């Protein structure tokens, strides 16, 4: 891969930088910096999505006929880097970056025409129904049933999904469901799109140890879903799920996000030195920061290789597991470093008390971000599962 950017690419980079300078609101920058959860608040994220949709830059990886940009891998890289550098948030990926590739690859023309424009223009807000109370890392053991009704035109869905991020905001959910319990688990799963307003769907909140409401349990009690909402073939959903997870785990630029957090940590270290000249006198914190930066450069290069593959019509493959493992480790190391830098000041958490927060600034988000990101070792595919994938697909074990 050629890492030298052309004159035209540099001009594009300046165009993006100027656009961000003129169109990225300060309230979005501040909300992004202080966000401690996996995703930004829905309203803030959709405000930024609308700005990008108006410009035509919201879904660079989609085909042009559906709103994509036809950018080169280098342009996508530069756009992502400039966005993070300017403090812009990541768009909520559940619909536009995770479900959309599945619909584009396996959906019917009617599904593409119906769901993609509404996803792009935020008429639909999606969540992901994968994990269940007894099916997390062993996802193929899922039990959410979808049985055909007497007419054969609908599925009747019963069961529940767990750890469903932003289900309390979502109006639609894409689910893995059990349509044949009498075959090998992976062969009896289907991929179903469900309207959350359908009678029988109930969302119950789960409060994290950071005292935030981001995840939920979703219950399905005789929920009627049209067969037309089945993506691809019945009982082939496991293949579609693996395809989606490759994009979730390795289709973006996590390195840019972590670089942005590194700059915040560096700023915290400067503040601590101003308050105490003997801060980090041994240099141990500075050494940890340097180690993270070295590994981040490696992650950045791997992400570039993956993007080039995806832009050429391929899928991320086992490199997505490499990126998931590395991203999780570096995020958690950065979070831990930030906590160690602020020390006892971490007690000033952005924790609701009597309906109000103690404080709302970056310092107050450090500990909640650390606590929330402990779960990144599990969500999107646990670290152990990613290592098993690499052992099988790369090492042939």
Short description:
The protein is an alpha+beta fold and 397 residues long. The protein has helices at residues 7-23, 26-34, 42-55, 73-86, 93-106, 109-120, 237-250, 254-275, 284-311, 319-342, 362-373, 383-393; strands at 126-129, 145-148, 154-161, 172-178, 189-195, 201-207, 213-226, 230-231, 352-353, 356-357. Helix 4 runs antiparallel to helix 9, helix 8 packs parallel to helix 10 and helix 10 (319-342) packs antiparallel against helix 12.
Count of beta strands: 10
Report the mean per-residue pLDDT as an integer: 88
Strand content: 5-15%
Element-by-element helix/strand order: HHHHHHEEEEEEEEHHHHEEHH
Strand order of the largest sheet: 1-4-5-8
Structural class: alpha+beta
- The rounded Rg comes to 22 Å
How would you describe what is shown here?
The chain has 397 residues and is of the alpha+beta class. Helix content is 48%, strand content 14%. The chain has helices at residues 7-23, 26-34, 42-55, 73-86, 93-106, 109-120, 237-250, 254-275, 284-311, 319-342, 362-373, 383-393; strands at residues 126-129, 145-148, 154-161, 172-178, 189-195, 201-207, 213-226, 230-231, 352-353, 356-357. Strands 1-4-5-8 form a four-stranded mixed sheet. The protein has a four-stranded antiparallel sheet with strand order 2-3-7-6, with no helix packed on it. Residues 354-359 have low confidence and may be disordered.
């Amino acid at each position: 891969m050629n890492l030298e950017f052309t004159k035209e690419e540099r001009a594009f980079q300046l165009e993006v930088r100027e656009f961000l300078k003129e169109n990225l609101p300060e309230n979005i920058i501040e909300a992004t910096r202080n966000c401690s959860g996996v995703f930004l608040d829905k309203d803030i994220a959709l405000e930024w999505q609308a700005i990008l949709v108006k410009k035509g830059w919201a879904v660079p990886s989609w085909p042009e006929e559906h709103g994509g940009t036809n950018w080169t891998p280098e342009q996508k890289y530069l756009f992502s880097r400039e966005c993070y550098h300017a403090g812009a948030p990541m768009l909520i990926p559940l619909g536009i970056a995770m479900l959309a590739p599945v619909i584009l690859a396996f959906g019917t023309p009617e599904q593409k025409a119906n769901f993609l424009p509404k996803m792009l223009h935020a008429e639909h807000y999606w969540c992901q129904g994968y994990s269940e109370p007894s099916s997390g890392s062993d996802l193929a053991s899922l039990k959410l049933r979808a049985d055909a009704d007497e007419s054969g035109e609908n599925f009747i869905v019963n069961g529940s999904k767990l750890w469903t991020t932003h289900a309390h905001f979502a109006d639609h959910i894409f689910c893995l469901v059990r349509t044949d319990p009498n075959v090998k688990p992976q062969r009896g799963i289907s991929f179903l799109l469900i309207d959350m307003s359908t009678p029988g769907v109930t969302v119950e909140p789960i409060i994290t140890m950071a005292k935030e409401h981001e995840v939920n349990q979703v219950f399905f009690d005789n929920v009627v879903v049209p067969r037309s909402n089945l993506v691809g073939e019945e009982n082939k959903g496991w293949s579609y799920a693996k395809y989606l997870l490759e994009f979730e785990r390795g289709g973006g630029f996590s390195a840019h996000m972590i670089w942005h957090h590194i700059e915040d940590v560096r700023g915290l270290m400067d503040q601590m030195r101003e308050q105490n000249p003997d801060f980090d006198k041994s240099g141990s914190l500075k050494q940890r920061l340097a180690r993270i930066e070295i590994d981040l450069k490696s992650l950045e290069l791997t992400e570039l290789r993956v993007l080039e593959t995806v832009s050429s019509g391929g899928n991320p493959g086992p490199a997505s597991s490499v990126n998931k493992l590395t991203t999780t480790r570096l995020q958690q190391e950065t979070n831990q470093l930030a906590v160690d830098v602020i020390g006892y000041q971490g007690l000033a958490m952005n924790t609701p008390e009597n309906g109000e927060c103690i404080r709302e600034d970056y310092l107050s988000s450090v500990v909640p971000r650390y606590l929330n990101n402990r779960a990144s070792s599990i969500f999107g595919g646990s670290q152990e599962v990613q290592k098993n994938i690499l052992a099988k697909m790369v090492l042939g074990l």
